[in-house]
Design a protein that fits this description.
nine-stranded antiparallel β-sheet, 1 helix
Length: about 130
């Protein structure tokens, strides 16, 4: 059983870019990236125990406060006492400071992979960098 006290090294890289964003890559998928403002989790279609383990290891090592788990084949993320069902086709974006829904101020946002459109998991408002789509 993998330990949470350190990040597994097998097929995993951890880098901090010039903007201070920490990026954790498993194989060729950036599974976790985070800054002071946001956490982005991305399974890249690889919903495996190794992917979950790396994500949870990163959370523990860096004190990010989330946990990823699976129940009856579906993925969930627990963050700040709330459980969020994770849509299989989307990366999960968690606002730590500034990324919040402009409608309800919700912190739990999903972003479609490769797109700038965000969706609030609380009120379901879709918005795109200042342009709000109801």
């Amino acid at each position: 059983m993998p330990t949470l006290t350190k990040i597994g090294k097998l097929n995993t890289t951890v880098k901090v870019d010039s903007q201070g964003i920490t990026r954790v890559t498993l194989y060729q998928t950036e599974v976790v990236s985070f800054s002071d403002e946001v956490i982005i989790l991305n399974h890249g279609g690889w919903q495996t125990s190794t992917t979950k383990n790396r994500m949870n290891q990163v959370s523990f090592v860096y004190g990010l406060g989330y946990s990823v788990f699976q129940k009856k084949g579906e993925w969930f993320v627990k963050y700040k006492g709330k459980v969020i069902k994770w849509d299989n086709n989307l990366a999960l974006v968690i606002g730590r400071k500034t990324l919040a829904c402009p409608n309800c101020d919700g912190e739990h946002i999903q972003r479609a992979e490769g797109h700038k459109l965000n969706k609030c998991l609380s009120c379901h408002l879709a918005f795109d960098e200042g342009v709000y789509h109801v």
